Amino acid sequence: MGVLFAKPNVSLLPWVRRYALRSAHVRQGWVHFPLPARSDCFLEFYLRDRYQIVMVATGAMHESPSAVVVGPHTQRLEDLVYRGNLLVFSIEFTPVGLRALAALSPKELVNTAVEASVIFGSEVSLLHEQLNDCGESLDRMVDAAEAFLLGRLSRISSPPEVLIVSSMAGTLQRLGGTADVNTLAHHFGRSVRQVERQFLDQVGVGPKTFAKLQRLERALRIRSENPQLSWADIALTCGYFDQAHLGRDFRLMTGETPVRFAAMAAAGKNVWHSLHQPPTQHDVAFFLSGAVADTLASES
């Protein structure tokens, strides 16, 4: 899958991390993309074909809405399956961006995704139409998205502590989740309880969970860029106490060991070459949680 990125307007920098345009043309087979836990929130528009969403716990599948808001995920609950001609435009929010632009606490979207109009109302449908008229021009899509976002920003007042929380979250991101929450609270002149409460309201998860997600994301990124590195080396680089600590976090947030999750990611590229319809539960059994996979395998 190819991807292009664009930076937001300066006035949107506190709220929007970046824009992304992903494209893929998969003529044969289906691609299965396992989704780990992740800290980001985003608004995504499907301009051609859509993803199939696989529920990891059951293997049940459904098509993504044509526009969707995805909240932070503390577990691996869903995977993506796709084929055909994809063109996907995403607005990736900063940790406090959804709170500022939707007047909604991300904690209401933790571990879930909802159709975009539920959050942004009918005006998001107009934006979708405008994006469809942009062809494959990322610049034109960004112009349309920023007109939409700036309009919302002018009508919504953010809580006064939002920029402080943004700075705290940014610190955890820059340090890869290795900052101690007590130290973070002291540096920003807050109590630990204040930091926890403000993170839950503005970011959707507590600071310790957010830090864990940053470590996981960094570990997966390093592994993707340096597949020759051992998990022990990655654990050391990412601030885990040891490899066992990394393994516990992986099981908590992906449902798998690091080795097994990496194997899933590798196996998911262009699988099921003979299928012309979306895969069934039995087809995706390898990617499901252990008990469900065992049950489906026994039924084959």
Structure, described:
This protein is of the alpha+beta class and 300 residues long. The protein has two domains: 154 residues, Sandwich (Jelly Rolls); 104 residues, Orthogonal Bundle (Arc Repressor Mutant, subunit A), CATH 1.10.10.60. Strands 1, 2, 3, 4, 5, 6, 7 and 8 form an eight-stranded antiparallel beta sheet that branches. Strand 4 and strand 5 form a beta hairpin. The longest helix is centred in the last third of the chain and has 19 residues. It is globular.
Topology (elements, then pairings):
Blueprint: E1 2-6, E2 16-34, E3 42-46, E4 52-55, E5 61-63, E6 67-70, E7 78-93, H1 97-102, E8 113-115, H2 116-120, H3 123-132, H4 138-155, H5 162-174, H6 181-187, H7 192-202, H8 207-225, H9 231-237, H10 243-254, H11 258-267, H12 290-299
Antiparallel strand pairs: 1-2, 2-7, 3-6, 3-7, 4-5, 4-7, 6-8
Key features?
Jelly Rolls; Arc Repressor Mutant, subunit A; 2 domains; eight-stranded antiparallel beta sheet
